Amino acid sequence: MDSINILKGYGKVNDIDQRQPARRSILLAVAFSVGVLLTLTFGLLIGGGFMHDGSTESTASPIASEKAASLRTVCGVTLHPDSCFSSLSSLNCSMRPDPVYIFNLSLGVSLKELSNASLFMKHLKERSNDVHSNGALGDCETLLDDAQSHLNDSISAAALGPGEKVLSEMKMSNIQTLVSAAMTDQETCLDGLEELGSALLDEVRTMMQRSKEMMSNNLAIVAHMNDLYMKFQKGGMH
User: Fold this and answer.
1) Which parts of the chain span the membrane according to its record (predicted)?
2) How many whole angstroms separate alpha carbon 80 and alpha carbon 216?
3) Which conformational region is residue 97 in: left (phi greater than 0), alpha (psi within -120 to 50 degrees), or beta?
4) Nearest Cα to 181, choosing from 210, 207, 209, 143?
5) Distance CA 32, CA 12 (A)
6) What are phi and psi of 167, to 5 degrees?
């Protein structure tokens, strides 16, 4: 009996041993199925993310296109359209298809460039050892401060009051006068350095070039403001 039990016991062990390969096959199949399922799930998630990103880009693209079209329409009336477009498109702000709004942004850029020129002038005077040039640079400081004051006044003049949608002829005339005065201040500064024969003339002229272009753009935009109104109302932006 003991031998039979022992044999039966061995028989059970043999049965288990025979079933182990089958169990391994089942486990491997399950593991493979789980792996495939996880891979598919991950792929769907990634694909969904790309689709979402694509939809965001397709939504943002018309906005960017409208912004570019508005800026090109306004900057197209200036003598320096490239510098006009690059300076305004680089601003970190919302953009509206409105010539007055864009014009105000343009005035702000001019004021910033003029402020940079004024700061440069102060630093230039501090490091200059030329007594004669220092006198002219001091005059330039005063003139550029005056120019900034004119531009600040032009920004105030360009603000629309309650119920206003367009700039009145009087406002546009005042803005032209103020911006022209700011440009005259710059030119007077350069004339003083030129008359003196200052070696700093070219350096100062180069530094002022950008603010000079920006203010020239301001004058061109306000001079064509009525035409720009018509273009924006008709949707004739390009």
Assistant:
1) 26-51
2) 8
3) beta
4) 143
5) 30
6) -80, 135
